[in-house]
Amino acid sequence: MEPLKLNLHRATWHWLDHTDPFESGSVMNAFAIDDTLCQLAGQQQNTGYVRGWVHRPTVVLGIQDTRLPSIQDGIAFLREQGYDVIARNSGGLAVVLDEGVYNLSLIFPEDKGLSIDRGYEQMVTLVRQLFPETGEAITDGEIPTSYCPGRYDLSIGGRKFAGISQRRIRGGIAVQIYLAIAGSGSKRADLIRAFYALAASGGEVKFHYPRIEPETMASLAELTGVTYSVDTVTSRVLTLLEELGDTLLPWTLDATTRPLFENHLKRMKKRNEDITR
């Protein structure tokens, strides 16, 4: 394997394994944890956090999605299909999480020399290192007919399997990616297409939501013919982390950090009051 071409070497990396979908709880917890780690990273100059997380079926809405004219009809539809629904605390639009979607958060202190684009590029490089069997096939660039399209969509042959977001809080940076490693990308996309058909009807829509073509989304398993498990991806992540720092340690909430988490979770719950009724 080629050496990592990343500017993310730290004296210590902390690893959080939240990949058991039956123990990870609400996705609101996931975003509150990342905000907590982001705040902690801003106070520590040579420490980073990496967190893997997997959840049971949930649709995560963007802030703009919650303002659609018939949003409650859209939410009711998603729940009828067996999905929990939450709104996240960062940008972007609706995405699907389930047991075949591996989420990875890379959290580290903000470096004034690290532009927003450079933060994204670090994650793109990391993903290419995680899946060397894809060779040079992974492309970064917007797939406009996918759900939650963005500049740093990752695709193979024009079919998107991952999307990246970024959040900066109090001197810390959280770069988050969802990786569809298994299952049907087109079925997930069709779910979100049906959601928009309901939620965007009956009134004025003040933003451009994606006109989704399900065939432009896929999972890595569909694209490569390789079977990926959550444990396989976690093992690869840990191997790379050992190359990125002198020390790799587990991390959990304690009496000092739990109040920070509870505060961020309270904000997430407040944001979701209208859609969880």
UniProtKB/TrEMBL annotation:
User: Care to name a GO molecular-function term for this sequence?
Assistant: lipoyl(octanoyl) transferase activity
Query: What is this protein's record name?
Result: Octanoyl-[GcvH]:protein N-octanoyltransferase
Question: Catalytic residues per the record?
Answer: C148
Protein role: Catalyzes the amidotransfer (transamidation) of the octanoyl moiety from octanoyl-GcvH to the lipoyl domain of the E2 subunit of lipoate-dependent enzymes.
Catalytic EC class: transferase
**Transcription regulation recorded as keyword:** no
Q: Keywords of this protein's UniProt record, alphabetized?
A: Acyltransferase, Transferase
GO biological process, any: lipoate biosynthetic process
E.C. number = 2.3.1.204
Which pathway does the database say it acts in? Protein modification; protein lipoylation via endogenous pathway; protein N(6)-(lipoyl)lysine from octanoyl-[acyl-carrier-protein]
Gene that encodes it: lipL
Q: Which organism is it from?
A: Salisediminibacterium beveridgei
Identify the residue position(s) of the site Lowers pKa of active site Cys: K160
What the entry lists under Pfam families is as follows: LplA-B_cat (PF21948)
Q: Which residues form the BPL/LPL catalytic domain?
A: 44-249
As a miscellaneous remark, the entry gives: The reaction proceeds via a thioester-linked acyl-enzyme intermediate.
